[in-house]
Automatic annotation (TrEMBL):
This is Phosphatase. Residues 100-128 form the Tyrosine specific protein phosphatases domain. InterPro entries: Prot-tyrosine_phosphatase-like, Tyr/Ser_Pase_IphP-type, Tyr_Pase_AS, Tyr_Pase_dom. Pfam families: Y_phosphatase3 (PF13350).
Length: 229
């Protein structure tokens, strides 16, 4: 099982070397068309568009902020950026299209006949919640789920270094960008709070929000825990 940011031109060879047979793409139509996934010959692509029913404005606002210092000050210091991302995390849990996408991910993993890779664009938010769902099915405790969710920060900091550099050249403090470019404990907690409010707990979310039955959950555990004693 592998997770990733968007797959670049060199990824097909890399994925072939580790035997990936299924790639789950969590991105939107626009993202997929602008940067198609490079996959090895014979690998299956499964689309699980988390934002299929949503029009997200965060990326456009972020791009505007990098060009407009006045807008940047408002967007980053007023809490607008953080609220935009928190809204997305609530919808991960509650919105029907997002629920269907995460269900597709779980069912694909449950029925996999080889290594699976799932990815979005940056590999942190949509991919991070997908990893959280899969690990929760495997019985991982919530604190460990949070630790894993936050563990991508060094990788995404490296991925976004050109953006940080461009922002610095425009006089924007690095920490202003963190709500958009870094995962945050508050984002994770926003999703957890939505689960408690809407379903009562994580297991109820899996059963009633994602419609994951016992057989599917057992199959996922078998995939994730293969080789464990």
């Amino acid at each position: 099982m592998f997770r990733s940011a968007q797959l670049g031109s060199a990824s097909a060879e890399e994925l072939q070397s580790i035997g990936v047979s299924t790639v789950i793409d969590l991105r939107t139509d626009v993202e997929r068309n602008s940067r198609p996934s490079a996959v090895p010959p014979g690998a299956r692509i499964v689309v699980a568009d988390v934002f299929v029913n949503q029009q997200r404005s965060t990326a456009a606002q972020f791009a505007q902020a990098l060009q407009d210092p006045v807008f940047a000050a408002e967007f980053f210091t007023s809490g607008s950026a953080e609220r935009e991302v928190q809204s997305a995390y609530r919808l991960f849990v509650t919105e029907e299209g997002s629920q269907k996408a995460f269900r597709t991910i779980v069912e694909t993993v449950a029925n996999a006949d080889g290594p699976v890779l799932f990815h979005c664009t940056a590999g942190k938010d949509r991919t991070g919640w997908a990893a959280t769902v899969l690990l929760a099915i495997a019985g991982v405790p919530q604190q460990t789920l949070l630790d894993h969710y936050l563990s991508v920060i060094p990788a995404t900091d490296e991925l976004f270094q050109p953006i940080y550099q461009a922002a610095a050249e425009r006089g924007l403090p690095r920490e202003w960008l963190h709500p958009v470019l870094r995962v945050q404990p508050s984002f994770f907690q926003t999703a957890i709070d939505a689960i408690v409010q809407e379903f009562g707990g994580f297991q109820e979310y899996l059963r009633h929000g994602l419609d994951i039955d016992a057989d599917t959950a057992n199959a996922v555990r078998g995939v994730l825990l293969a080789g464990q004693k």
